[in-house]
Design brief:
By secondary structure, the chain is of the alpha/beta class. It is 48% helix and 14% strand. A five-stranded parallel beta sheet has the order 2-1-3-4-5, with helices on both faces. The protein binds 5-phosphoarabinonic acid.
Length: 316
Amino acid sequence: MESQAEINDKKFLGELLTLKEQVKFRERFALPQDLRDVVIAGMGGSGIVGSIFKELYSKLPVVLANSYELPDFVGKGTLVVAISYSGNTEETLAACGEAKKRGASIVGITSGGALAQEAEKVVKIPSGLQPRSALGYMLMPLLNSFEVCKDGSVEETYGILERMDNDNSFGEKMAEEIFKEKYIPLIYGTSPYSSIAYRWSTQFNENAKLMALWSNFPELNHNNTMALKASYRLDELYPICLLSNKSERIMRRINATQEVTGMRFRQIIEPQGTSNLAQVMSLMHIGDYLTYHLAKLRGIDPLDVSAIESLKAKLK
Ligand code: PA5
């Protein structure tokens, strides 16, 4: 008989395998007329969707709301997209309630819960996954509605993700290296997918239950750079660069950072494909697999979010 650990492992792996199907999710919502600005409210595995979207879309101002409050400018002319996989996250519901009072248009992206009742328009997404594994379902309605993806992006992304699902030995190898020496991951991103460095760190937290540090070029050259030279336990870090920007200035910064601080990237990872969608998803999915394999090596259940749930229950 299969143990609970084996069942959970299989379930989580099954969730990772659905990402390629999720990019085919065609749902969209109508944008309000006279749309002036966009606020995306959400937390954790749902909130990251807003960070990714903000980097992919810049025709209108996009502001993230990752707490209870909304910025003062929110009112008529603002579209508030409230994203919560469960539909019951208190910060997101508070932001949604505030948006209503201010007369903003509201779209909820959720699998159910209170948000499905609260929002004036709702994009219903499939339930039964971990929020962080449902990123495609939550992101695609935004990309579809704001027409961010070029023709052919979905097909290209599907193919790349499918290949990664069949062979994720690269992520597995990194997991083995990190596990062997008990390294702390240090993830540095670059535009236009800086948010993926943050996503990797949260996947380390939630899947592998490991602390992870992250920042982005060029910002890290104005603070982290000092610590990279003089911090405690630098040899315990596993520095990874997610290289999605090979401009001359960024490449010079990466090289100069290594020269000045003595830090050497153990991995420099580039996105795959030509479309924004393929690039962002491919870069992200390596981190999904790496953290899944690391959880396995640590004998940890990648599905388990019991501490987050206990905390939510305590605050009720
Ligand atoms: O990954 C997780 O389980 C969390 O980060 C949740 O996404 C977070 O607590 C917010 O919940 P929800 O996504 O249901 O709004």
